[in-house]
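Worked example

This section walks through a single chain of length 346. The input is the sequence exactly as stored; nothing has been trimmed or padded.
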Amino acid sequence: MRARIEDVAETAGVSMKTVSRVFNREPNVSEKTRLKVESAAKALNYRPNPSARSLAGNRSYLISLVYDDPAAASSYIMEIIVGMLAACEDSHYSAMLRPLEYSNSDHVDAVEESIAQFRPDGLILVPPFADDLRLLRRLDELGVRYATISARAKLGLAQIGTILDERKAAADMIAHAVGLGHRRIAHIAGPAPHGGRAWRLAGYRDGLRKAAIPVDDSLIVDGGFSFEAGIIGARTLLDLAEPPTAIFAANDDSACGVMHEALERGMAIPRDLSVFGFDDTPSSRQVWPSLTTVHQPCRDMGRIAAEQLLASIRDTGGGQLIRVPYELRIRQSTGPAPVHSSAKPI
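Given that input, the structure is written out below as C-alpha cells.
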C-alpha cells in the first residue's frame, strides 16, 4: 500500500503537522527533525499527495513563469526554466510555463486570467514583464506574490528575485574591446521593452566615454535578442562606408547572427571583425570561433528567484532581492583590431 503521512510521522516519531512543515519547507524546523522526517519518508517511499496537500494548506503548490512568447526558444529562457524547476523540485512544488505576447495590449488581462484559471501561489516575471509597472501594480492589488529576474528598476511592492549589474558588465566588455585596440565599436541593441536593452546600451556608452571615444550613432542599430536580428543588424553595420572593427551584440543569439553574416561575406573572425555577446548561453560555446561574452548565471538566477518566491509564500516577510555576479568570458571571437583598419590604435 502507498505510504501515508501518518506512517511517516509514526516512523519519524513526530506529529503529522511537523511532517507537513518539513515537506512545505516551512521555517522553524530543526535540521535534526528535518533529517529524521526525510529519512523516514525515503525508507517508506512516501510521496506527498498533491491534492490533499493543496486542500490542507490552502495552496496550489504551483508557481508560474511568465515570459515573452517570441523569446520562448531562446537559450536564456531555457536556462531560467532549468533553474526554476530545480528549486521547485527541492520544495515539492510544481511549475507552470506561461508564454504570453508582451506586445499585445491586453497582456495584463492575460496574466490575470491565467492566475484565475490555474491559481498559482506566485509568479516569476522576466523582462519585459518584470519591468511593466502596470502589471506589477495589478499584482499588488490582487495580493499575488511575485519575484522578478533582472528587472530594470525596483518597481512594485515585492522587492524579491535576482538582479545583475548589466550596465557595468557591458562597460567592462567595451573596455576589453578598447584594450584590444578597437575604436570603431558598434552595438546591436536589444528589443525596446526589455530592461536589458537600456542597461546594455548605457554600459556601451559608458565604456566609450571612459575611453574618450566619441559615440557615433551610426554604429548603434536597433535589433533584438534573436539570431535573425543579429544578421540584420550586422548587414546594416558592415555596409557602412567605414564599418566597425568590433560589434557588441545585446545577447549571444544576436552575436551568433553577426558571426554568420560576417562569415557569409568571407570575413575572418576575429582577424577582420571581433564579435562580443552577452549571457554566456550554451550557444556561445558551441559556435566556432567560440564567443566572447558576459557570463550571467541564468540557471542560478532562475533557481534563486524561485527560492526567494517560495520563501515569500511560506513567510509573508520572506524573500530578498539577490544580486548575482557576472564575469567576462574571453574566447576566440575577439582579437586585436585589424591593422589595415582606418581606426587609430590605442
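What to look for: The radius of gyration is 24 Å.
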